[in-house]
Amino acid sequence: MFKNLRQLTPFSLVLLSISFTMSISQSTMTTAYPILMKSFNVDASTVQWLTTGFMVAMTLVMPLSPWLLDNIKLKPLLNTIVVIFLIGTAIAMLSPNFLGIIIGRLLEGVAVGALFPTFQSVIMENTAKAQRGLTMGVVGLVMGSALAVGPIISGIVLQWVSWRALFALFFIILFIIIVSAQHVIKNTHPLKHSSFDWLSAATLIGFGGLLYDIASIPRTGLSLNWWLIFIISCLLLALFTIRQQKLAQPFLNLTVFKYQGFLPGLLLTGISYSGLIIATVLMPLFYQRVFHLEPLWSGLLMVPAAVFLSQLNPRTGRLLNQIGLKKLVYIGMTMMILGYALLAIAGTHAWVYGLVAAMLLEGGNAFVMMPAVTAANNALPKDLVSHGTALITTMRQVIGAGSVVVATILMTHFNEHISIGQSLVRTSGWFIIVPVIGLLLATRLQSHSQK
């Protein structure tokens, strides 16, 4: 791992450090839900807004990242993003009521939504095509590890300290990083000034509305309000698409879809991300509800999968240049199928089967997600990389959120008739369909391309 990190520039390392810290904060809150529910006397549907609101805020801002990169120098842009995150973290940490925590998380979501596509675009633009596979493998290592270790860190902190210490921890770390790294941050992205199109910005609400609708299905069902939000969101997105085609410098340049290889890469990224997210949802439930392990041990049992993921990511980056995306997808999706199958067959027999299944699911993600991001952006000219990255990160969030909702609906439905263990087993069996779709999509890739 450290050998691969040394191959990156100091600026890229700073970007990865900031992104790693923000990513961990993204995945820590679920562990604190029971404590917050008790402290503020709120129910499960209310506390869920700490995650749902965060994701909606992220999705609203992600499509704006190409405009931000083109119109604001990278150093002040990065500093502003971090300051917004620090303000949100401070509000959440010091708030005497639950609404303040929600506001703080929304601000954190805005910052993360601006950062993720921005930092990936900058790293991609400043890396030669031949080295992008390895570089994005390291990016995948950092991002995947952050997602996996978040619940572990929160479990350890909450075991001995207040939930406010979680926010304090990330505030201190991020503050130290941004202050000490000022001399390293460079304005590497060329500016292409354009006016801010408020109509496009307004129609972006459609992305947030769609994600909110997806996340609210388990709570509200397909009610009249749900359908109204869905229809309005789709209409707004249709207006956004039409508007972008008429602008000389659009927020999102949708001509990226004309380049062969971009759309399959985008879809494969979302499908592989689904496997990673579902692993972090299902496995703690298996460990805690079926085998009655403590939350701390539940988190620690996710470590082997996180280590496996971190070891594979840089290696799959190299393999992208050697064997191409198609073969990597075959390997990764097959691993994910085996992971879900193992849970479906033996998930309730012993916790060790879950440990192996998590390694297969997260390892399969390493073979697909970042190689697919790299291959999709390699199909684009350099001036469209930021637009491609913004679309990929946005759709990855939507597909990931959709996967969690489907898992929740399946588990709730099955649990009405059978035990929690059997409902988790059946849910795992149904999710085999997702990597099968990935395999079918891989057959449409060109064997000699996508490198």
From TrEMBL:
<feature type="transmembrane region" description="Helical">
    <location>
        <begin position="262"/>
        <end position="283"/>
    </location>
</feature>
<feature type="transmembrane region" description="Helical">
    <location>
        <begin position="295"/>
        <end position="312"/>
    </location>
</feature>
<dbReference type="Pfam" id="PF07690">
    <property type="entry name" value="MFS_1"/>
</dbReference>
<feature type="domain" description="Major facilitator superfamily (MFS) profile">
    <location>
        <begin position="11"/>
        <end position="450"/>
    </location>
</feature>
<feature type="transmembrane region" description="Helical">
    <location>
        <begin position="328"/>
        <end position="346"/>
    </location>
</feature>
<feature type="transmembrane region" description="Helical">
    <location>
        <begin position="196"/>
        <end position="212"/>
    </location>
</feature>
<dbReference type="InterPro" id="IPR036259">
    <property type="entry name" value="MFS_trans_sf"/>
</dbReference>
<feature type="transmembrane region" description="Helical">
    <location>
        <begin position="224"/>
        <end position="242"/>
    </location>
</feature>
<dbReference type="InterPro" id="IPR011701">
    <property type="entry name" value="MFS"/>
</dbReference>
<keyword id="KW-0472">Membrane</keyword>
<feature type="transmembrane region" description="Helical">
    <location>
        <begin position="76"/>
        <end position="95"/>
    </location>
</feature>
<protein>
    <submittedName>
        <fullName>Multidrug transport protein (Putative)</fullName>
    </submittedName>
</protein>
<feature type="transmembrane region" description="Helical">
    <location>
        <begin position="134"/>
        <end position="157"/>
    </location>
</feature>
<feature type="transmembrane region" description="Helical">
    <location>
        <begin position="48"/>
        <end position="69"/>
    </location>
</feature>
<feature type="transmembrane region" description="Helical">
    <location>
        <begin position="397"/>
        <end position="415"/>
    </location>
</feature>
<keyword id="KW-1133">Transmembrane helix</keyword>
<feature type="transmembrane region" description="Helical">
    <location>
        <begin position="163"/>
        <end position="184"/>
    </location>
</feature>
<dbReference type="InterPro" id="IPR020846">
    <property type="entry name" value="MFS_dom"/>
</dbReference>
<feature type="transmembrane region" description="Helical">
    <location>
        <begin position="352"/>
        <end position="376"/>
    </location>
</feature>
<dbReference type="GO" id="GO:0005886">
    <property type="term" value="C:plasma membrane"/>
</dbReference>
<keyword id="KW-0812">Transmembrane</keyword>
<dbReference type="GO" id="GO:0022857">
    <property type="term" value="F:transmembrane transporter activity"/>
</dbReference>
<feature type="transmembrane region" description="Helical">
    <location>
        <begin position="427"/>
        <end position="445"/>
    </location>
</feature>
<keyword id="KW-0813">Transport</keyword>
